[in-house]
Specification:
The chain has a five-stranded mixed beta sheet. 40% of the residues lie in helices and 15% in strands. The protein folds into two domains: 74 residues, Cytochrome b5-like heme/steroid binding domain (Flavocytochrome B2, Chain A, domain 1), CATH 3.10.120.10; 31 residues. By secondary structure, the chain is of the alpha+beta class. The termini are far apart. Bound molecules: protoporphyrin IX containing FE (HEM). The site of protoporphyrin IX containing FE (HEM) has 20 residues, from helix 2, helix 3 and helix 4. The site of protoporphyrin IX containing FE has 20 residues, from helix 2, helix 3 and helix 4.
């Protein structure tokens, strides 16, 4: 595999539709493998467009995993390029903005006010 890519070029492949990762100086297109990954897609998405050598090794992937990885190779990293910060893609489970906490806080205050009004009413009428 003779294609050589800089970290800048690799970082551009960081969306769910097009995702590359680096393992030990080689570049892998994991787009199609994402759904099949036994460790889940999120874990790979977090490393989209970046060097995943350490996390990949830390998991202790099997020989079988290494074979799959080999089949996904699209080139190698330009040795003169330096790793850069990459924004990881949003997934459907992230980024949901709930206002439930704030809403229930207001409800507690409203209940407390009602409680004190009722208590005041009874205290003055008994
Ligand atoms: C393209 C790269 C990758 C390939 C081809 C791959 C392949 C596999 C395969 C085949 C397994 C099943 C167990 C085994 O055979 O070792 C597996 C499990 C796993 N992988 Fe990956 N993996 C990749 C990248 C990663 C990365 C970057 C991480 C994260 C940091 C990761 C985390 C995991 C975890 C946590 C499991 C364990 C799942 C379990 O046993 O519950 N993988 N992977």
């Amino acid at each position: 595999m003779s294609n050589v890519y800089t970290y800048q070029q690799i970082a551009e492949h960081n969306s769910v539709e097009d995702i590359w990762i680096v393992v030990d100086g080689k570049v892998y297109d994991v787009t199609k493998f994402l759904d099949e990954h036994p460790g889940g897609d999120e874990i790979i998405l977090d490393l989209a467009g970046q060097d995943a050598s350490e996390p990949f090794r830390d998991i202790g992937h099997s020989e079988e995993a290494l074979k799959v990885l080999n089949g996904l190779c699209v080139g190698r990293v330009d040795i003169n390029s330096k790793p850069i910060e990459v924004e990881t893609p949003e997934t459907s489970t992230q980024g949901s903005h709930t206002t439930g906490g704030e809403g229930s806080g207001k409800l507690v205050i409203a209940c407390a006010i009602v409680f004190f009004i009722v208590a005041y009413y009874f205290a003055n009428n008994l």
